[in-house]
């Protein structure tokens, strides 16, 4: 029943929201009676356009955002059920033919934001603040999407107006320098912050808000501070953005594991998430870091049977031993992130079987597990660690923020793990590791490694390839190269 539901719902969803880049190749006028000129007339139209923009983001959050942000790091390894070609990410064997997900879906979401920015200013709203919030969310979305893409591929086609026709001169663009992309991202962030009326969140915290845009701002300026020669000025801006986030209704939850429960969406720790719901959309990427039905052996330990509960998904890749072994057993984030399944042998020996993630166990309905937890883009602990990073880059003591995160992680045993300020290099190493322990499986690790300049030191498959800096970017896929004739492959691929 589950597979049938997924097939039907996937077809319906695809018919409703898909936009094919292949049509860019056909000089044909659309036959639909609904056009942009006739649609963007009312506040309800604007709401529909806004919801469509978030649906496109959710399409990318199903799997692609995780691949871009974490798949190539040291976090994952092969599991029981083959690889599904995911090994090319953590083994870093990408090439033009096997480039991973491409940017077409991301640009579709950018186009949705561009449509809002073009047409919403012409629409009369009952409330000016609602109109401003709608525009702010579109600016925020465009900034976020370009930030994902510029870190993934570098130079990009810069599209700031919607693609509404089939004119090759406006449809097919060459790549603009990454510096121009960062300039647009920062401009969009400032426009969004100016337009949001206050620090309020929407119900569920699954739409852009002023606090979440400030989290994005901190992320962007830390990146450009370290990767684009922004230096002290950018670190100062990142620190100020973190301070702005703290003015909102945010706090750390006392219980780390509760953050990720299906029944606890939109908690005070969440700044921005991508919303998933049972019967609304298919499984997200946590599906393939769990355990297929029937895969749990009969001689698995009782504790594992209780924790895994109803099997589901597929064990295509799993948390790597390299990373699992960095978690202390005193750290509640260990159990809140993964569980190691052991079996009991005939002689009573414990034998390692598999590791499953515990951050995205979803919900069980009718005896079937559905992986529909929200995908968190930003949360308060992330901001605290970004603040620690910014302070350290500025020569300030990051102890306060580091210890707020560690106090939650270690509870009564915190004193044994208390962070003590050291050299800038030692602090950076500690902050990078803390981000691993705190944010593992949330799509952050690869970008953290690149930002800190540690990818070639830490990722096993890259350690023998130092100097091949082109590997820090993804290749452009054959699909994109065939559809967009002005796009050239990234050097080195």
UniProtKB/TrEMBL annotation:
Residues covered by the RagB/SusD domain: 248-493
Swiss-Prot/TrEMBL keywords: Cell outer membrane, Membrane, Signal
Subcellular location: Cell outer membrane
InterPro entries: SusD-like_N, SusD_RagB_dom, TPR-like_helical_dom_sf
Pfam families hit by this protein: SusD-like_3, SusD_RagB
Regions annotated as coiled coil: none
Main location, first listed in the record: membrane
Gene Ontology cellular component list: cell outer membrane
SusD-like N-terminal domain mapped to chain residues: 97-222
Transmembrane residue ranges: none
UniProt similarity note: Belongs to the SusD family.
Protein name: RagB/SusD family nutrient uptake outer membrane protein
Species annotation: Larkinella humicola
């Amino acid at each position: 029943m589950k597979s049938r539901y997924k097939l039907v719902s996937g077809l319906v969803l695809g018919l409703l929201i898909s936009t094919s880049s292949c049509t860019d190749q056909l000089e044909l006028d659309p036959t639909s009676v609904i056009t942009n000129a006739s649609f963007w007339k009312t506040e309800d139209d604007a709401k529909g356009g806004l919801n469509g923009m978030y649906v496109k983001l959710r399409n990318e959050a199903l799997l692609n955002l995780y691949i871009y942000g974490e798949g190539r790091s040291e976090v994952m390894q092969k599991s029981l059920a083959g690889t599904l070609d995911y090994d090319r990410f953590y083994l870093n064997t990408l090439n033009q033919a096997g480039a991973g997900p491409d940017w077409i879906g991301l640009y579709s979401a950018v186009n949705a934001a561009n449509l809002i920015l073009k047409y919403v200013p012409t629409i009369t709203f009952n409330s000016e603040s609602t109109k401003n919030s709608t525009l702010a969310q579109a600016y925020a979305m465009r900034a976020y999407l370009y930030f994902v893409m510029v870190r993934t591929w570098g130079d990009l086609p810069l599209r700031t107006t919607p693609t509404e026709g089939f004119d090759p001169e406006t449809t097919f663009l060459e790549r603009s320098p990454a510096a121009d992309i960062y300039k647009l991202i920062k401009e969009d962030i400032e426009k969004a912050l100016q337009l949001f009326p206050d620090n309020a969140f929407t119900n569920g915290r699954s739409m852009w808000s002023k606090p979440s845009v400030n989290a994005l701002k901190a992320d962007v300026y830390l990146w450009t501070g370290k990767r684009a020669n922004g230096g002290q000025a950018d670190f100062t801006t990142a620190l100020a953005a973190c301070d702005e986030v703290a003015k909102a209704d945010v706090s750390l939850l006392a219980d780390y594991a509760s953050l990720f429960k299906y029944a606890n969406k939109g908690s005070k720790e969440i700044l921005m998430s991508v919303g998933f719901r049972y019967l609304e959309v298919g499984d997200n990427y946590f599906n393939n870091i769990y355990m297929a039905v029937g895969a749990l052996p009969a001689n698995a330990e009782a504790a594992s049977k209780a924790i895994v509960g109803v099997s589901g998904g597929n064990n295509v890749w799993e948390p790597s031993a390299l990373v699992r072994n960095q978690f202390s057993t005193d750290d509640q984030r260990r159990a809140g992130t993964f569980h190691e399944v052991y079996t009991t042998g005939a002689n009573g020996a414990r034998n390692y079987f598999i590791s499953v993630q515990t951050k995205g166990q979803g919900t069980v309905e009718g005896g079937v597990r559905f992986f529909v937890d929200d995908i968190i883009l930003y949360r308060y602990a992330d901001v605290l660690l970004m603040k620690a990073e910014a302070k350290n880059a500025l020569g300030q003591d990051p102890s306060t923020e580091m210890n707020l995160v560690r106090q939650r992680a270690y509870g009564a045993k915190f004193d044994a793990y208390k962070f003590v300020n050291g050299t800038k290099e030692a602090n950076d190493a500690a902050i990078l590791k803390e981000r691993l322990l705190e944010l593992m499986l949330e799509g952050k690790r690869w970008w953290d490694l690149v930002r800190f300049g540690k990818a070639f030191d830490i990722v096993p498959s890259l350690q023998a390839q130092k100097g091949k800096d082109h590997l820090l970017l993804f290749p452009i896929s054959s699909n994109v190269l065939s559809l967009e004739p002005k796009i050239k492959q990234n050097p080195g691929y």
